[in-house]
Amino acid sequence: MKRNFPFIAAILLALATLAACTDHNFPPVASEATPPTEPHKRIALLCMLSNVNYDLVAASEQELSQNTLRINDALQHNADVRDYLGTDWQVVWGPAISNSMKKSTTSAVDSFVTDNTMYVARGTDLATGKVMHVVAIAGTNAVSRKGAFGEDFNVIREKDWGAPNSGKISAGSALGFNILNAMTDPATGKTLLEFLGTLNDAGPAEVAFTGHSLGATLSPLMALKFIEQKQQKGYTNVNVSVYPIAGPTPGDKKFAAYAGGQFGAGYHSVINANDIVPHAWQKDMFGKIPSMYKNAPPFNPGGSGGFHLAVKEQLEFDALKLVIDLKTYQRIAPEREFVFQGKANVYPDGSGTYFKEAKYQHVIAYYIDAFQFPQSVIDAISE
To answer: InterPro entries, per this entry (predicted)?
Structure first.
């Protein structure tokens, strides 16, 4: 069973081209964001555990489902995870997965991969002493074509969100949302929203939604739908917050305003200024992608220059940019996004490339520079 660090290479998978960010500059905004708190860091760890089926090609869907049980096993038995999170965390809904068949070119037997994963963990936050529920949504699986092409890169068409004056989201975001919204808990048959609806009757409840990369596109959508359900049904005992990590932009300017207004101060995004993925799909940010790693130093230390796109890759990017320039995609509440500068990776053997740096900045830089996970926790995530 092959295992890599979970990273969501939407651009790497789809066009094998785009890979980074600006010359260290996001559009300036009046920021209300603060660095991740200790509770935020623990939510981030729960987020990363959702990528349990990353890079796994299995002989059956049963094998994929069985592998997701490793999440609860880590919460219950991994000493490093329990030391970091606390000892009473457990999976209470899911993990639920959506899979695709992977056609084999070398064998008569086909295999299966997971496209989307979502679970809910309940535990006591060590800082506040409050019981909370964390909804964690996985990012793109590197072996899933559906995740990359159907969800990540499906941005030419758009779909109405559905609420009055709520704008549009990309067709890929809508597909991912519909998949998650239809998922059911294997034990109870409840959808996520049905399960969360039961929390209102149990007294005050804290529900945090989180996801990395594609999961950071979809977690605000699931949170928003639950907030709308909360308003429609008059839930008064549930507080909702959102913690997306390294996410692309799910919707247009009107949607961003609507979602930001619904989330208010409960929105806590984290993005790396040296990461490509948050630069999709807001056009002023997207256009800066090719120039990301051109400077040495800090990138490619010891080399004669930075990392660049090849001519073919640049042409592919330019073609896509013509489409994005016609769109009005906009990030949700940028003033509430914590933007950090991921430190450049070092390649002592001279093997660094544009895409290796992109992978590092999209995953490891978050572990080290944003959340400052101890190495034991990083090892637990990557296991």
So the answer is: AB_hydrolase_fold, Fungal_lipase-type, Sec_MonoDiacylglyc_Lipase
